[in-house]
Specification:
elongated; 165 residues; Glycoprotein, Type 4 Pilin; 36% helix
Amino acid sequence: MRRNQKGFTLIELLIVVAIIGILAAIAIPNLLTAMQRSKQKRTMADMRTIATAWEARATDVNRYNAAGVTLPTVSVSAATLGNYLSPTYVKTFPQRDGWGNNWNFWLDQGMATATAAQVYAIVSGGKDGTFQGNNPTGGATTAFDCDIVYSNGTFIQYPEGVQQQ
């Protein structure tokens, strides 16, 4: 038998596979967190886009100009709001948040009523898509599942710091 053959031994291959496995175990959780953070940032950017369009329309029709922290109670569908805002105030209306979940839009008056609405809110249910109620805790959140709430020109509830799965 010849022992002078070229190639890798089984032990050398197992060591390389183990090293690759260790590197993957370190990198994958960081990658998953980075992907969730990017979805949060996209959601927040889309909220600002919708709010800017909504406020531009408010300038034209004299509605939605007061600030408020408690969410309004009249729900508005994305399709209805999109019809009012697109294409005049926003070229493409974002139909879903960064996670692919439906938005929640709220007014203190109906979209087609004669009474001028003074408060609006845009809510994303977060990673899980579950709306957590009409009275947000407000301030910074540290979980991907928490709602992100934008009302009358400012974020009422928003992600900040290290986020938890």
